Amino acid sequence: MLTSVDPGTTGAPARGSALPGDAVRVPRRRQLTGLLIAVILLVLAVAASLVVGSRGIPLGTVLDALLHPDLTVTDHTVVLDLRVPRTAIGLLAGLALGLAGALMQGITRNPLADPGLLGVNAGASLFVVAGIAWFGVTSALGYVWFAFAGAFVAAVIVYVVGSLGREGATPVKLALAGTALTASLTSLITIVLLSNQEAFDKYRFWSAGSLVARDLDSTLQLAPFIAVGVLLCLVAGRMLNALALGDDLARGLGQNLVAARIVCAVAVVLLCGSATAMAGPIVFVGLAVPHIARRFTGPDYRWILLYSAVLGPVLLLAADVLGRVIARPGEIEAGLVVAFLGAPMLIALVRRVKLAGL
């Protein structure tokens, strides 16, 4: 059994940690070096997103389009009207999904927690479908309110169902409740779409999880919601460190468990709702990114959240670029590429972590 440590230090997590296998002390130098590497990868991913596509554009031309735009030049128009918007959306959505995944894994102490696996994305999707089918919503700013409501309702249902029984909200019960809810909501989505052809036509492209052909102006209006979610994450780091020690010990250290869970839940709803409204229900970003971060940070959630905010956009933009390259002259949506890459990671996690230790 693991030994308790101060949650604010960089050391092995105490009893109740979600990831006992990762309980290794990580030197501060390694944390800073890893963060620098992550930032460099983010810069490279942004550059690749602007340069790579069905139409090859040199980096010098991209820089010229950004610094001295001339809309009479075709390459400048492609960069400004197509690639800059999808890169900006990839940055915002990746940041939101990475942070949301880290929050969900921390608050549930479940290494398999993810907005897609726990039904949050499905809830947001169902409400967005309802908005499209019955209220004629067509913009990201219109989607977001339905996405917020759906994410909140799904999160509450999963937590309530997972809390039933003598042991309360265990990680296994939360995962099972999320899986069952996702299946149920997916069936409801199918029923709505089959009865409304216009909604189906609008939804089928959005649901694939893509960064292309999105309305940048409406999307940027969602940035304040993500900003609030990020600010809540700054508060949540110490709370998650305390929760990782187990409810009893966290309560003994003076942590208000109800307040901690409310703060994290609000942040998750804001981040997941915004990301889903922007780019559709993209899965596995929130699952993969926190695990990658832990290899460099150890169990300290203040560092995990910081890394997740950088690595989330890296993964999503890299998937988007890869989707453009492997299917030229067409492309594969980023959400499909991320799902293809994330499935092996999920299998590896299930094999590495014993079910009793989830």
In short:
Helix content is 71%, strand content 0%. With 358 residues, it is mostly helical.
Structure description:
- With 358 residues, the protein is mainly α.
- It has one domain: ABC transporter involved in vitamin B12 uptake, BtuC.
- The protein is built from 14 helices and no strands.
- The chain has helices at residues 28-51, 59-67, 74-108, 120-135, 140-163, 171-194, 197-206, 216-220, 223-243, 247-252, 257-279, 285-297, 301-325, 334-352.
- Helix 4 (120-135) packs across helix 5 and helix 13 crosses helix 14 (334-352).
- The protein is globular and about 65 Å long.
- The two termini are 14 Å apart.
Report the helical percentage. over 70%
Strand content: under 5%
Terminal CA distance reads 14 Å
The biggest beta sheet reads:
none
What name goes with the CATH superfamily? Answer: ABC transporter involved in vitamin B12 uptake, BtuC
Secondary structure category: mainly alpha
**Low-confidence spans:** 1-23
Average of pLDDT: 82
Query: What oligomeric state do these chains adopt?
Result: single chain
> What is the H/E order?
HHHHHHHHHHHHHH
Number of strands: 0
Protein name: Iron ABC transporter permease
GO biological process, one term: siderophore-iron import into cell
Keywords: Cell membrane, Membrane, Transmembrane, Transmembrane helix, Transport
Pfam families: FecCD
List its traits:
358 residues, ABC transporter involved in vitamin B12 uptake, BtuC, 71% helix, globular, disordered N terminus, transmembrane, ABC_BtuC-like, membrane
